[in-house]
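Can't attach files on this board, so I'm pasting raw text. These are the components:
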Amino acid sequence: DTGVSQNPRHKITKRGQNVTFRCDPISEHNRLYWYRQTLGQGPEFLTYFQNEAQLEKSRLLSDRFSAERPKGSFSTLEIQRTEQGDSAMYLCASSLGQGEDTQYFGPGTRLTVL
Amino acid sequence: GENVEQHPSTLSVQEGDSAVIKCTYSDSASNYFPWYKQELGKRPQLIIDIRSNVGEKKDQRIAVTLNKTAKHFSLHITETQPEDSAVYFCAGGGSTLGRLYFGRGTQLTVWP
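---
Top answer:
Structure tokens for the assembled complex are below.
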């Protein structure tokens, strides 16, 4: 499968625990995006990378959230001290960049915080 | 920042009828407007997109129109089929903005 992949697909954790999600973009895609989606809403932007550089972070992204893309390929999103309000689908998308804007989404990681 | 509004939130049509979903945007810097279809429990899938230098684009039963002056764009689905039932999202953005701003979605139900 040459599409965007995400792991794990589901994560259940207790409040206060840390969780980390991984996203593998489409090969050669320079841009990688993280979105969060809750029930009945459209995806909400969290952050994006151009290669390994994190170019923008949403104000929604509290200090407990951190994202990395160390080698410009896969990315990780970590949430520290999870809260029940963090329960959502976390979607990753990638695009070629260089003026090509089409974003292709991964299947998402569904996080449930108990 | 950009604000994308989408209407209606739900839409029910009979099989074979047309469906129209409308969106407005606020940021003149937006120059790329994709539409995604999302079935329950699945990832958003791009179905069609349009750039600001084009007024209309068509792909079989799906068409999108863009009015830059009024800052609105619409999705038209003709000859609807039950398998078109899903949530449809419009979005605005572009290279200079990086991110996409999504509307809140339209739940389309096509009755056989």
